[in-house]
TrEMBL record:
Domain Pyridoxamine 5'-phosphate oxidase N-terminal positions: 26-131
Superkingdom: Bacteria
Gene3D superfamilies (UniProt xref): Electron Transport, Fmn-binding Protein, Chain A
Name of the protein in its database record: Pyridoxamine 5'-phosphate oxidase
Amino acid sequence: MAEEPRSKAERKADVLAKLSAPVADAWVATADGDEPHLVPLTIAWFGERVLLATDTGSPTGRNLAAHGRVRVALGGTRDVVMIDAVLERTIPVAESGPAGEAYAAQNDWDPRTAGDSYAFLVLRPERVQAWREVNELAGRTLMRDGVWLV
């Protein structure tokens, strides 16, 4: 039997805990025309933004540079966080400053050591949804148009 649905405030707190957890792994989906691309990546939460680190020549890097849209998913099928975001900027690892420091502090890998082809992709969330069971589908949208609804 499913637990009672969480309030929006509880869901937001759970989302922020997942985003800022050590070594936060996520599924990252981009597309190039009709060709979808899905890859597991480790993310960081920095200044209300999702940070990805990837080779700019990878499908994720190329798709984001060309189209600027991404979907990031965290959690299992019974504790979902879904984030639709836009690429705000790309920061070469050598110029990453506080963003690079924050990413390395949250994760078990420092992309600043991976070479000049790597960059941090700064994603601005536009929509955030979170739910566990069917009883949380209503009210699952916690952010719309980049504004928290909580």
